[in-house]
Amino acid sequence: MARIFLSPPNIGKNEELYVKKVFESNYIAPLGEYVNKFEDSIKAYCKVDDALALNAGTAALHLALRVLGIKDGDVVLASSFTFAASVNPILYERCEPVFIDCDESWNLSPELLKKAILTAPKKPKALIVTHLYGQAAKMDEIMEICDSENIAVIEDAAEALGGWYKTKALGTIGKMGALSFNGNKIITTSGGGMLIGQKELVEKARYYSTQAREPLLHYEHKDFGYNYRLSNVLGAIGVGQMEVLEQRVARKREIFELYKLNLANLDLEFMPEVEESRGNRWLTTLLFKQKNAHLKVIDALAKQDIESRPLWKPMHLQPLFKNALAVVDGTSEEYFERGICLPSGSDLKDEEIDKVCKIVKENI
Ligand SMILES: *Cc1c(COP(=O)(O)O)cnc(C)c1O
């Protein structure tokens, strides 16, 4: 049997055809028709005003901070239980992060959010809230708290395309949202990202994403920008991947259910789904009862050429952020010490799930 990866790319029928069309047109870059089509398909799918295709999800988060005017010593609240890319842009803008722990939803705790606002050294300007592993955070509570405090909410929906909260796509509830099309995400352009939100803000980000060029014949600059846009070749891959997104979500959710069924008799806690939401189940994640039980399982799977991972190590436990303020109650730390991400590729076969489950059962 071939190696089983955690979440490998899964290319559909049309991506190669669209890339070919890009080559036939000669306009592999810069930008072009397929980047526009990709943005349009995200706008239509997420029911969002505007979308900006970028070369990374990290770039989307960075531009969100930039267009919201957050910089130089401003306090930015953030989910601690996330990937570093979620919060690195806080450092790019020389801001001060304040990390907030998760609750039983595995996502940002609204209670600790309130506490963080009171504890922060000054009034926070923004919150970066992650929808972890594609599952929605408690957005009603979070929006209510942040709206009343005038804190801009940026949703890190990098893992969560295809996920919903009530009637809204994840990433479209706060002021701005970031999506990622990195190689391991639910759909991929090999690398890429998208910033979504209101037209006015996204337009401003569009300006910054291409070196902040003034609309003149010659190159005129009043501000500094970045080279953050996506190439037309990758836009073509994105258009093809959007055609299969719903299928990918359906299979990811099915994989989660298959694991749950297969491992039903064990004392495990799977990542929950908050009320009135539909996550994309990007990765199937669960907690073992015993601390460090996941390490033995990861090791046993690796011996059979199967990739699995611990959960994200919380940001407040990272050496990089040892001096950052953190409003935590031990929840994410505890999850990190006994949680696992199981292979969840959308092309994973049922037999492969059985094989993984057998190894899990033999090793706990
Ligand atoms: C993947 C990811 C990002 C960054 O996306 P890139 O496209 O890799 O830059 C940000 N936040 C989270 C939670 C992610 O998983």
TrEMBL record:
Catalytic site: 185
GO process terms (BP): polysaccharide biosynthetic process
InterPro entries the UniProt entry points to: DegT/StrS_aminotransferase, PyrdxlP-dep_Trfase, PyrdxlP-dep_Trfase_major, PyrdxlP-dep_Trfase_small
Enzyme nomenclature, EC number: 2.6.1.-
Name of protein: Putative perosamine synthetase
Family: Belongs to the DegT/DnrJ/EryC1 family.
Signal sequence, start to end: none
Lineage: Bacteria, Pseudomonadati, Campylobacterota, Epsilonproteobacteria, Campylobacterales
Residue positions, PTM N6-(pyridoxal phosphate)lysine: 185
Gene of this entry: btrR
Originating species: Campylobacter geochelonis
